[in-house]
Amino acid sequence: MSDRQGMNTNNTHSLLVGYALWLVGFLGAHRFYFGRPVSGTIYLFTLGLLGIGWIVDLFLMPRLEASADRRYVRGEIHYTVAWVLLGFLGWLGLHRFYLGKIGTGILYLLTVGLFGLGIIYDFWTLNEQISAANHERQDGRRYETV
Question: Which pLDDT score, from 0 to 100, does residue 1 have?
Answer without folding.
Answer: 40
